[in-house]
Amino acid sequence: MNKRAWLLLWGLTSAACGDSGTSGDSNDPAKALPCDVQTVMAKCTSCHADPPLYGAPMPLTNVDDFSGSGLDGTALSELVLARVSATTSPMPPAPNEALTSAEIDVLSAWFDAGMPARAEGDSCEPINEGGAPSTLSCETDVVLAKKAPYTMPAGVEDETKCFGLQVENTGAKRHIVGLGPAVDNAAIVHHFLVFRTPSLESEEPFDCALFPPKWELLYAWAPGAPAYELPEQAGFPLEGGETANLVIQMHYNNYANAEDLTDDTRVDMCTTSELRQFDAGVMSFGGANFVLPPNATSELTCDFSVPTQAEPVMPVHIFQSWPHMHSLGRAMQTTVTSANGDERTIVDTNFSFESQLLYPTDIDIDVGDRVRTICSWENSTNEMVPYGEETNNEMCFNIVGYYPAITSPQWSGGLPAAAADCTLE
Ligand code: HEC
């Protein structure tokens, strides 16, 4: 980008972004899974438990569970093999580790053999269950709670609801240094996000599958993701006397017809008056200027070069990356290339709208660096799909957490994406 464009864009104000359960052993030994199958299925039964957790549609804990068909009528054995090898929406969902090909072979051989139950008298090694620890090591002093517990309407399978709330800091400046899940109704909680918003959003539940560009992502949780603590150098600022506006965006699933549909999931937060060295901030790479052609795969390459005018605020250190696209998004890569050719990868991942994860990173960017973000989509619709905030629009933003936060009044976190040069192929 040339100097003039940078200066013009420096004046822009648009902001960031576009925006364990029970398992294994059936109570009925005649229906128990063979030991090798059960060992593989231990990677599934943290969600596909009986009853299912985190929005999983069905239990997969005994032989009978495999005999049925999936939501679309396909035989479950076929669906299982398809989903464990899928690149789009694989099972188990990230951040949980994918099955190895040896594990997939175990399932496949068992299906071919007609899904026999465990041989009588066989006893299996106990399974070590449970994902990443989700407890914060910092001390929780603020609990983010909805105004009231939320009850999903019966008959709804999939919904996203947002809840506005405020955190008041009556004292001196503090830093937000950790956020962790306090999941209440694990049967229906699929994942959640926490944003900071410019003003108070409704405290009553409202629909918000998508969100406006001015919301800054602070935290993303999905089953299997660890609790989240900022690097020791940085904290998100909570200024003295400030009332911070936050939104919890809850994604609920009820494919399994759970009976208890009320959820009071909260988010534990650690703040500290022992200020870290730096304020953390949020900015976005990618681009907002594209229209995807119908029935085609497309790739958008957006380059943002850090201009010399940014010298006073550079370098910055990027400590996390959150790829954000809508449902047609398939993959995102962001790399940084220095003038001397040195290249570092911020993120390089398949994308699934169902599980939008935070990736920890440890990368500096400085004046002269080129930050390149490549977004890939599969537009299987008959429509042109433009950039935008609506359900039938798409996005290409890599929303990163960084420090030290840039505080210039002309700066906004949306600037690097707004200023990028993008080419669609
Ligand atoms: C972190 C929770 C979680 C884990 C672990 C998990 N699943 Fe799932 N699974 C889900 C959710 C939620 C859905 C429903 C949404 C979807 O289809 O993506 C689902 C859907 C499925 C479906 C599609 C069912 C249908 O009717 O369309 C299959 C098949 C499946 N999972 C198999 C597995 C297998 C096999 C494993 C282990 C190798 C596994 N899952 C691990 C949460 C999980």
Write the layout of secondary structure elements.
Blueprint: H1 3-10, H2 35-41, H3 76-84, H4 101-112, E1 142-144, E2 150-151, E3 158-168, E4 174-182, E5 189-197, E6 206-207, E7 216-221, E8 228-229, E9 234-238, E10 243-253, E11 262-263, E12 266-272, E13 278-279, E14 281-286, E15 291-292, E16 296-305, E17 316-324, E18 329-337, E19 343-350, E20 359-365, E21 370-379, E22 385-386, E23 397-403, H5 415-418, E24 421-424
Parallel strand pairs: 9-13
Antiparallel strand pairs: 1-12, 2-11, 3-6, 3-10, 4-8, 4-9, 4-12, 5-7, 5-10, 14-23, 15-22, 16-21, 16-24, 17-20, 17-23, 18-19, 18-21
The chain binds heme C (HEC).
Can you give a write-up of this model?
The protein folds into 3 domains: 3-19 and 279-424, Jelly Rolls (Sandwich), CATH 2.60.120; 29-112, no CATH class; 142-277, Copper type II, ascorbate-dependent monooxygenase, N-terminal domain (Jelly Rolls, Sandwich). It contains 5 helices and 24 strands. It has helices spanning 3-10, 35-41, 76-84, 101-112, 415-418; strands spanning 142-144, 150-151, 158-168, 174-182, 189-197, 206-207, 216-221, 228-229, 234-238, 243-253, 262-263, 266-272, 278-279, 281-286, 291-292, 296-305, 316-324, 329-337, 343-350, 359-365, 370-379, 385-386, 397-403, 421-424. The strands form 6 sheets. Strands 1, 4, 8, 9, 12 and 13 form a 6-stranded mixed beta sheet that branches. A 5-stranded antiparallel beta sheet has the order 6-3-10-5-7, with no helix packed on it. It starts with a helix and ends with a strand. β18 (329-337) and β19 (343-350) form a beta hairpin. Residues 1-26 have low confidence and may be disordered. With 425 residues, it is mainly beta. It is globular, with a radius of gyration of 23 Å.
